[in-house]
Amino acid sequence: xxxxxxxxxxxxxxxxxxxxxxxxxxxxxxxxxxxxxxxxxxxxxxxxxxxxxxxxxxxxxxxxxxxxxxxxxxxxxxxxxxxxxxxxxxxxxxxxxxxxxxxxxxxxxxxxxxxxxxxxxxxxxxxxxxxxxxxxxxxxxxxxxxxxxxxxxxxxxxxxxxxxxxxxxxxxxxxxxxxxxxxxxxxxxxxxxxxxxxxxxxxxxxxxxxxxxxxxxxxxxxxxxxxxxxxxxxxxxxxxxxxxxxxxxxxx
Length: 252
What we know:
Elements: H1 3-16, E1 20-21, H2 26-34, E2 38-42, E3 49-51, H3 57-66, E4 81-85, H4 91-99, E5 104-108, H5 112-122, E6 129-132, E7 135-136, E8 141-145, E9 160-162, E10 169-172, H6 174-180, E11 186-191, H7 197-201, E12 212-218, H8 222-232, E13 237-242, E14 245-250
Parallel strand pairs: 4-5, 4-11, 5-6, 7-10, 11-12
Antiparallel strand pairs: 1-2, 2-3, 8-9, 8-10, 12-14, 13-14
Helix pairs in contact: 1-2
């Protein structure tokens, strides 16, 4: 089976699952498999979403709108403020904006091409969304991408690293983001930053954690997990697992 046929088979599988409606024509699926941007519509999202062909976008869409990876947050109430760190092309933000119609999101994504797709996907939500082309980190400054994560098909796994100060990626902190947007409290902090959570949660000052109600995070390896658990141990969280996500729900 050639690569186009494999992708087409994968897209048909997603269409067959009940999370997707509206993108069912063979011509649309074949265009996406060949590398053309197509549009998907899910019953779990208030707006259509764009999927770049020949990228990791379809796999991210599958996780969020077919596997419903963020269903672990569905029971929350009175959600007003969300930070989506590692927003990729906006599918997680779109899911949360649909689930919590009174909420606004600050979405952070370091990759410029992902950020363009993110802006397109979240444009219908207007002033409910603020976007930053940046990476979440322990301190302000500049970073760069790890060379081995910049290839085609790896758009969902871009990693950043410290450079000699000439990096092209802006680094932002939680404190900085909250100050910029006048946030006194964050109801949901979603973090999927490909290992950079090690730096964020090992920082000398993590006082901002007291201003976060709920956290959903993908932890990358044992070291990241240990650092994160140490950071949140004194918080009154109920901690569970949902798919690849560690979910910390406030018990206050």
